[in-house]
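ok trying again, last paste got cut off:
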Amino acid sequence: KEPPPPNWLVEGMFLRGLVMILAGDPGAGKTALSQLLSHSLALGRPFLGLFPTTQTTVCYFDEENSEIDFYQYNQMIWRGLGAPPIEEYGDRLNFYHFALGRRGWHDSIADVLEVKRPGLVVIDTATPVFGVKEENSNDEAYEILGRIKHLRRSLNGIPSFLILKHERQRDKGQHRTIRGAKGWLDASDRSFYHVVPRGCRKRIDGLRQTGLIPDKMRTYGLDTPVRILPEWTDKSRKGLIFKAHYDAKLDSSIHGEES
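nice, full thing came through this time. structure:
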């Protein structure tokens, strides 16, 4: 018989109810990209101008970035979206910045999810949010992801989790991977890499192209790399716009081959 229609959260990219890993090159801007995704879902607008979204509530836990960076990223993303009225967000965009306290991540996040019932939960980044004690421990990675999946089941499998990780530095020709235990990749449903393609140095305006590469393949979702083109809204550089297009050759250019 025919398979059921996909229940998209971001159409053409990922379904509702997944546990995903987003690993980023240093300086690629995975936090800005994740915040753009959060704003897009809360507003019900296309992500990167390319992927339609299903409007939903987002809970974003940030234990990585300084307060000034946290606010600056949000201001730039918001202005890049045209500075929509705050009322347009309703109560769907929820940021928790260094807010987990001493109770431990599981109980703190569980309480928030019970009240907010989000469609997406963003973890920025895994090590400080989850209090990872041994970054190279697969057992610890499996244990944490198991608890995340229990949280998801407690909410009827509705929320997706996007967990930000750092990409491991690699020599030319090595396979792309994350820093630390590979159990994070093994136990997740999907994984993506936010990368700086070969030769894409910072422009005179301080911006540079990046790319989004799908790694772990599934039946539905992103299967072709995406090139991301940033630009400022104006000369004041207060607003940041991200546009994207599919680029099947992007992955080969990262590995040092001609594209």
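cool. The first strand starts at residue 8 and ends at 10. The chain is about 25% helix and 20% strand.
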